[in-house]
Amino acid sequence: METVSIIIIIVFAIVFFVFSLIIVKQKQAKIIQRLGKFQSVRRAGISFRIPIIDQVAGVQNLQIQELRVPVETITQDKVTLKIEVAIQYLIKADMESIQNSFYELADSTAQIESFVFDAVRAEVPKMELDMVYENKDNIANTVMEGLNSLLSSYGFDIKKTLVVDILPDSKVVDAMNAINEQKRLRQAAEEKGEADKILIIKAAEAEKESKKLQGEGVALQQMAVLKGREKAIKDLTVGTNMQIKDATELVMKLIDQDTLISMGEKNQNVIFMTSDLGMKGKVMEAMVGADVVTNHQKN
């Protein structure tokens, strides 16, 4: 009989010990209530409680959590949008924060969502569609500041708020793509026009430089001709004691004859106007001489 009693006591002690154990995982906290009243917060590790009297009321996750909230709203230019906001938050690790986060908010997730709805729908209708894309960081910061202000006293710490997606109506997306396509085509046309303009300018500059070089060449050629005539006149005046006027006339006549002979060789018709009959006869003789030379070369 005594043996049975001992066994019963041992079993009872084991059961009491097992039910009095509380094991808490890392980054968790368990809320302990004694007869329905908050008693303590148990952190990671092993601890004890009084079975039946002390109960685990709930478990709080102390890791950084993410809540994604899809919000449907409308912009200032009457475009319907679906905006997805990601809220990254955690419960502060001190006992008061853990207690408040568990007892003060009946449904923290729903209350966070409600605030996000309100904040986004207050900001987005002030902006046109393009401004929403440009100011998505400002929208996220506004939501984060508001959430921190609202939830900080309940033990929540909002780490980051992100606008992860902005989805206009499909027709609006198609219109935006068409606008971007036309913009790129216009830019391409402008770039091509600018390239063609550069080519035309470069060609004009090259032609200008070419004509400049041709002009310089002609000028040098004429200078060489003038120097040759000057030397011929000087040689005639020095070598034959001819007067400068007579020497000049002779050189000019020889030049005219050479010109006429050259034109005759090329079969070009020339009308030479002069009031000097004697010169006219000499010109005619030069032309006849040019024909003879040309015919001789052909034979």
TrEMBL record:
Transmembrane segments: 6-24
Pfam families recorded: Band_7
Subcellular localization(s) per the UniProt record: Membrane
SUPFAM superfamilies given in the database record: Band 7/SPFH domain (SSF117892)
Membrane topology qualifier: Single-pass membrane protein
Descriptive protein name: Band 7 domain-containing protein
Top-level lineage group: Bacteria
Annotated keywords: Coiled coil, Membrane, Transmembrane, Transmembrane helix
Residues forming coiled coils: 172-223
Gene source species: Paralabilibaculum antarcticum
Band domain segment(s): 19-180
Keyword Zinc: no
